[in-house]
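Input record (one chain):
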Amino acid sequence: MKRALIHRGYFRELFRQLRTKGLVGTIILAGLNLIIFSVLIMRDPVSASVSHYDPRLMALPMLLFLYVMSPIMVFGAFRWLNKRVQSDFYHALALTRVQTYASTAAAIFLWILIALGSYAVVNVLLFTIFGLPINYLLYLCVFLNMLIAAIEIVSAFMIGSALCGRRFAAFFQSVTVLFLPRLLLTAFWMFVEGDSGCMTPFSMLPFFLNPEFNIAATPIHSLLYGINFANVAAMLYSLVYSALLLTLGCIAFKKRKSELAENPYASRVLQTAARVVFGMPQLIAVIVILNLTVCWKYDMQSFERTVLLPLIVTAVFFSFVFYCLYELISTKKMKPVLKAMPFYTICIALALFYIFVPNWVAKSRTPAVISQ
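The corresponding structure, as predicted from the sequence alone:
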């Protein structure tokens, strides 16, 4: 007998358990909408009709809601994964792993849909009551983009929950899955652009760097710059990418062992990768400063003596401290920290990669740019 993908009983029970979180989130989001609209009306009733459906202003409350409520919902639904006794109990239920994962995802997505839908309904009611014009197509595009972003953010946190047995490690792993791929690509591209001395216009960026093609992973660009929320190609790309993350989360959850509960990571490789990620931002910051000094053509001799060398030493020191601190927090033991210290060379190797490879790419790219 073929089983349904979503187990109705488990879905209803989990939806009920998430009721308090879902209702509080919905009320807060709708209330925030009321506050924003009231401020706009009091400031200028005429311009409110124009500024309130500015995509950035519309998307901001919803995106913030997703960043805050998604981990709360996921960790609330999967709280049993971090306790060995509860994990053994849930794994013994007459549900397949896929059913458990799909039912959990469905319950979370339904509460998020209710919250975002309430936000949209409140918007429409306010505009109708005050007799202000409303751009329904723009509302629909922003709403669809936020739904896709919800799938991506929730999927990232479900991956983190499946790969880790402790809350801190799961949260950090989830944030890494959500932001790191785009961040690494963007940093690499910025270094290439800086070394080559030519900046690509925002509209001509490749899809893997364009914020329109992954709004959830590029919140600053998405909200500060006037991106096109009606870009159908970008929406399809984001939807496919979100579906891929959701599928990867299901695979990780299916392979997860009950013994992982109360342990930070499923493998040493993931543990090492997490430490490296925790120790890299300080080094990347120094590389950014180094690239800026080259672009701005400072007197490098005096700059190296007075600023750059002390800055590099300080950055490496704090990077190493953060690297070890993450291991200590996640494992709660000192012995793994001592064993992990030699692997800090991976951080140094990655930093060297970001120093030399973008420069090599820039040199090979410059003649083509000049010929154009």
